[in-house]
Amino acid sequence: MSEVTTAEFNEEGKYLRKIRSFVLREGRLTKGQAQAIETQWPTMGLDYSPTPLNLTEVFGREADTVLEIGFGMGASLVQMAQEAPELNFIGIEVHKPGVGSCLSDAAAAGVTNLRVYHHDAMEVLEHAIADGSLARVQLFFPDPWHKKRHHKRRIVQAEFAELIRRKLKIGGVFHMATDWENYSEHMLEVMNAANGYKNQSADGTVVPRPDHRPLTKFEARGHRLGHGVWDLMFERIA
C-alpha cells in the first residue's frame, strides 16, 4: 500500500498541494488478474465519478454498506463479503494486480455483494460516497510510516477521522487494525481527540479482533512468532 499525507509543505513551511491518499500503481498483471479485470469489471468494477453513488442502484437492493480502504490482494475482503451476504461491500485499492486478484477470487467464490474501485481513496470518499451512507469503514494494516519523522504521512490524522465520520451513518463504525503498536497508539490518540466518536473498547483502548475480520495468513504467522495485532473500533455518535 502506498500512502502519502493529506498535506505537504516545503522547508519554509509553504503549503505545496493537496496530496492524494494513494498513488495509483499499475504493477505487472498475471494473465489471470488481467482476465479477471476484463471479464469481471463490467459487473463488479466502479468507475470513479465525482458524484455520490446511488448505493441502492449499484447493488440492486437496500442493505448496509461496508467500505474498505486499501484491500491489498483482496482475499480477506472477498471472504468477508462471502460470509456476510446480507451486507454490501465496496473495496478501494490502487495496486492493479490486487484489484485483479480480488475480482478473480470474488468471481470464483460466486460473490455478488462486492464492488471495487481502482482509484484514489480520498477522492472516492470525498466525492463518490454520500455523507451518512456507510455502516462501516475498514482500514486494515495501512502503511505505518514507522520512522518518527514520517509519522505525519500516516493516513489516520484528524482531517481523515472527520472525513470518515461524515461518511458513516450515526451508529456506523470506523474499524482500524495495525500490526505496529506505535501506530495503534497514534490511532488511539487521533480518534480519542476526534469529535463525534465513541470508542467501542470496554477499557477505552483496543478491542479483540471481531469475528467479521478474517485472520490473514500474514497475521497468523505473526501470532506464531509472538507478534501483536491491534484492532480499534470507533462508533459515530454525532
From TrEMBL:
Binding site for S-adenosyl-L-methionine: 68, 93, 120, 143
Keyword hit for Methyltransferase: yes
Positions that bind substrate: 147, 179, 216-219
InterPro entries: SAM-dependent_MTases_sf, tRNA_(Gua-N-7)_MeTrfase_Trmb, tRNA_methyltr_TrmB_bact
Catalysed reactions, as listed in the record: guanosine(46) in tRNA + S-adenosyl-L-methionine = N(7)-methylguanosine(46) in tRNA + S-adenosyl-L-homocysteine
Pathway: tRNA modification; N(7)-methylguanine-tRNA biosynthesis
PROSITE patterns: SAM_MT_TRMB
Enzyme Commission identifier(s): 2.1.1.33
Swiss-Prot/TrEMBL keywords: Methyltransferase, S-adenosyl-L-methionine, Transferase, tRNA processing
Described purpose of this protein according to its UniProt entry: Catalyzes the formation of N(7)-methylguanine at position 46 (m7G46) in tRNA.
Family the entry assigns: Belongs to the class I-like SAM-binding methyltransferase superfamily. TrmB family.
NCBIfam families: tRNA (guanosine(46)-N7)-methyltransferase TrmB
Name used for this protein in its record: tRNA (guanine-N(7)-)-methyltransferase
Species in which this protein is naturally found: Shewanella decolorationis S12
Gene assigned in the entry: trmB
